[in-house]
Amino acid sequence: MNAHPLVSIVTPSFNQARFLEATVRSVLEQDYPRIEYFIVDGGSTDGSVEIIKKYAEGLEDRQQAVGFHKVDYWVSEPDKGQTDAINKGFARAQGDILAWINSDDTYEPGAVSAAVKYLQEHPDVGLVYGDANFIDENGRVIGKFAARQTDYARLRRGYVHIPQQASFFRASLWREVGPLDPSFYFAMDYDLWVRIAARAAIHYTPQLWANFRLHSSGKTIAADDRCWPEMIRIHRRDGGNWLSVIVAKYYVRMVIAPLLNWRRRLQMRQHSDRA
């Protein structure tokens, strides 16, 4: 790996104009010098395309600020959803390190540099991830993702603890195990983490690298009940049986899921009321 390996970042997007600009800027304002950034939009009709064009064509008033990149490629056309969009982006990627950041999430300053530095210093590690805050619709911090160290065995038991927003992995592994499985709506990242962890070490570093936005139309709130059944599909596909920790966790989750979603919605309302 050279001194500044190319990092390819993909943002899948569809009708997220109210959050998209913050996402784009969080990528383009990274201090890492070699980033290629792709936005794969699903044919938005809410003004997203105008935002993308602004950052693809450049802003006159920024005067090529040091460390400010631009959108290298974008497309806006009907697709088969988020997973399809991510796969389309990575199919174009030339980078040594890959990541995706959804159009309602953001990076913290310095996240890319920190991830690259770790991967350069630890060639045995295939995926590195940091911490992520939960933020509300207005970008206020309302909690923290429960990130901590996991591995292949623990992933198979359902102990994920990897915030996708704060994750970076080697392109060489993507070429071995990719693309994402388009049959998954929610657990395509978990599926990828399992496949990567079966081949290389993964590592958690306790540094804040990203923000995970919770809002009423986000998948985590609107479709959380689809995640664990998909994880069980992966478990069964890989030879897991029904007498296992992940299955037990699934049944517990079925019982407490309404409470968890109620708490998330309450968090959002409380912070909205304080604004």
Topology readout:
Layout: E1 7-13, H1 17-28, E2 35-41, H2 48-57, E3 73-76, H3 82-92, E4 97-100, E5 106-107, H4 111-121, E6 125-135, E7 141-144, H5 152-156, E8 167-170, H6 171-177, H7 188-197, E9 201-213, H8 219-222, H9 227-237, H10 245-274
Parallel strand pairs: 1-2, 1-4, 2-3, 6-9
Antiparallel strand pairs: 4-8, 5-9, 6-7, 6-8
Helix pairs in contact: 1-2, 9-10
CATH class: Alpha Beta
User: What's the helical proportion of residues?
Assistant: 40-55%
Beta-strand fraction estimate: 15-25%
From the spread of the alpha carbons, the general shape counts as: globular
Mean pLDDT: 89
How many strands appear in the DSSP assignment?
9
How would you characterize the largest beta sheet?
A: 9 strands, mixed
CATH architectural name: Alpha-Beta Complex
